[in-house]
Amino acid sequence: MFLENKKAHLAVIIGAVFYGMNGLFIARIHDMSIYSTVFYRLLFGLLFLFAYIVLRGKTSDLRLKKKKKKGYLLLQGTLVVACMLLYFTCLKITCVSIAILLQYTAPIYVMLASPFILNEKIGKESIAALFVAITGVYLIVKPEGGFSGIELTGTYMLGMAAGLLSGIIFAALIINVKILKMEYSELGMIFWPMGIAFLLLSPFAFDVSPAILLDNVPVLMAFGIVSIGLGEIFTIIGFANLETQTGSLLALIEPVSGVFFDITVLGIALSSNTLTGCVLIVASAALVSLKDVGKMGKRNKDPLPIEIPYDSSL
Known about the structure:
By secondary structure, the chain is mostly helical. It has helices at 2-5, 7-19, 22-26, 34-55, 70-93, 96-103, 106-117, 124-141, 154-180, 186-200, 210-240, 244-250, 253-264, 272-289, 293-299. The longest helix has 31 residues, at 210-240. The protein is globular and about 50 Å long.
């Protein structure tokens, strides 16, 4: 019974683990800009999603509603692109640590906005979990010498602003999923925004030569299937069936899983600060997951409309 009630929690966590593999794929892609990489990641991810939808006989889930919320699908796709571009702008101007730290301030904005937009109450467990999780993220990404040596030039401040905006937009993505849930199935919420993002990034398809693209195709295919395919399926199912505050906090498992893959696959050393940060984030995820199941049931009584695809049906 406990596991049955925690399917949505588990979905977000599994999705975050899939997203945590991003660094493994990026490390194996060569001579391609990040934007063309993201475009082809979307291409192969969408092909996987479409094949999955067809094989499950769920093409009716892609039917667009005539009356309401088409604009929210367009908004979701635009937010996906904006979040990626702002994140990578921050990454390019500042550093990986600051880019991750600023994007994962998203739970703060979700907690501030959800009472007004979705009428969700801010629970004391969520506040405690947020504090613990943000502390954990800080410890994971904190440079050895700290952030004190950063020179706050005009360009650097632009990068910081881009990072903050990426966090705000990430929060908007999570909130918008709950709004779309009123009209669309999870598969529709996954496929159409990704398709819109694909079209918006299509000019970057020609930023790479055919020879280089062909050489990178196997990694790009795996990247798209794991990240856009499996990652999106799990996280959107989870976000759609949880309070936004809970979903945004559980998504912080992504940097933890990224650290795990860096250690086990890439052989990167684990510092005591990083280990402590990982423990704090896992503790915060446990805290929000162990909230009263009955409270969650009152807010969302509908069962998950599709099975979470962790079995052989894939």
